[in-house]
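step=encode ok
step=design start
structure_in=
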């Protein structure tokens, strides 16, 4: 009898310990996070609610959206035992929301029996701003005349802060820059190689909440035909350039293959590098008046010459000339054609020793094949300042300057920027009317 009593007592003690252990098994509240948990949102913003409970699992969650005195239940969900982790997407589009401040109240409870069976709970409030309206774009420039291969400027105003703004068409996007006046200026290119029907420029703006708007502009696009040119590559040229080109095309034995590698692959890499330069630009224009063509220099190859390369009578390559070639005497002084900041003054593949000057709004000039550089990246240069001397470094047969103009890294026709009346009518007058 005594042993039975003892056993019974032991059983009670054991159950009690087990019950206490069970009661205290999970005393930590579930973790919750909301992404985004602050800032502006719109109807279509994907809001992710993540719940986690490493103890006994999540039991349920409730979500209420609050605007002023209006409380709208959005979600109530129970979970099966042992639910350690849950991701839920909140769909605000089912609610009728007002523009402005908004709170999302979340309360999650776990499966624990702690707190007299109520479990551990976590309640949090997230403050966001509801913005369902796309930015309003007011066009300020009226006429937009583009010539194929050339540039143009679009000016406009916006009614709110934006995350992305510019002009787009096909696969192109040209960023717009906010000016001191608050207006936006956007240099746009009618690319020399685009299909005419693909050139339909539109202003595009996306606000901080993600609302987007596009606006068509009135424009005229003039098509032009570019020249076809033949370039003969001979053994003398290959022999003379080989030591330099070999550094750009390692592990290629045949000299013609070295040439082709540089003319294709290195050319493409350099193009991509110039697109990167285009992002390092001043948001306001740094140029002052028309670009000065290099003094006393004769024109050689022109912008967008379509070149076919031959070797021993056989066609070996096709490329387009992304600049305008000028020559005077050997080792001629080369000047910055307008004021700006030097973003590159080093060797760069097919361009050899070269200088790139940023003039703002994504507009940059390139001075290539030089024999000597007199500036460094980071220098400010004035219109007409000597930046180096001409030469034949890179993919050049003789001493000349390859002059390139780029907008957001896209090569454009330099002739326009040398033309004072074109510059006034199409760019400078539009910019100054906004100040
Ligand atoms: Zn050239």
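sequence_out=
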């Amino acid at each position: 009898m005594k042993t039975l009593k003892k056993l019974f007592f032991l059983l009670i003690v054991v159950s009690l310990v087990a019950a206490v252990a069970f009661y205290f098994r999970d005393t930590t509240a579930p973790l919750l996070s909301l992404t985004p948990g602050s800032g502006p949102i719109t109807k279509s913003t994907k809001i992710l609610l993540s719940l986690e409970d490493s103890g006994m699992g999540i039991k349920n969650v409730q979500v209420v959206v609050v605007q002023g005195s209006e409380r709208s239940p959005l979600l109530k969900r129970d979970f099966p035992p042992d639910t350690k982790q849950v991701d839920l997407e909140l769909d605000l589009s089912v609610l009728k929301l007002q523009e402005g401040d908004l709170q999302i109240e979340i309360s999650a409870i776990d499966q624990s029996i702690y707190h007299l069976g109520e479990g551990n709970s976590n309640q949090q409030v997230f403050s966001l701003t509801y913005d369902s309206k796309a930015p309003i774009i007011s066009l300020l420039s009226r006429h937009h005349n583009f010539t194929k291969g050339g540039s143009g400027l679009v000016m406009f105003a916006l009614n709110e802060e934006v995350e992305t703004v510019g002009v787009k068409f096909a696969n192109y996007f040209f960023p717009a820059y906010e000016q001191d006046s608050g207006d936006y200026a956007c240099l746009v290119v009618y690319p020399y190689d685009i299909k005419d029907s693909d050139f339909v420029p539109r202003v595009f703006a996306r606000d901080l909440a993600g609302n987007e708007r596009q606006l068509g502009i009135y424009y005229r696009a003039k098509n032009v035909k570019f020249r076809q040119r033949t370039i003969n590559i001979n053994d003398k040229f290959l022999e003379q350039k080989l030591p330099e080109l070999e550094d750009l095309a390692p592990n290629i034995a045949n000299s013609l293959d070295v040439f082709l590698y540089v003319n294709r692959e290195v050319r493409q890499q350099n193009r991509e590098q110039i697109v990167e330069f285009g992002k390092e630009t001043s948001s306001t224009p740094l140029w002052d008046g028309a670009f000065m063509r290099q003094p006393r220099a004769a024109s050689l190859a022109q912008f967008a010459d379509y070149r076919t390369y031959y070797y021993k009578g056989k066609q070996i390559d096709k490329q387009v000339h992304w600049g305008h070639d000028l020559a005077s005497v050997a080792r001629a002084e080369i000047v910055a054609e307008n004021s700006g900041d030097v973003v590159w003054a080093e060797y760069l593949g097919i361009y050899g020793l070269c200088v790139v000057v940023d003039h703002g709004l994504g507009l940059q000039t390139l001075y290539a094949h030089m024999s000597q550089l007199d500036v460094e990246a980071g220098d400010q240069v004035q219109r007409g300042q000597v930046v180096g001397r001409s030469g034949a470094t890179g993919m050049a047969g003789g001493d000349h300057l390859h002059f390139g103009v780029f907008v957001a890294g896209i090569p454009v026709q330099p002739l326009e920027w040398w033309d004072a009346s074109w510059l006034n009518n199409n760019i400078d007058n539009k910019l100054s009317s906004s100040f």
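step=design ok
step=annotate ok -> The CA atoms of residues 14 and 319 lie 87 Å apart.
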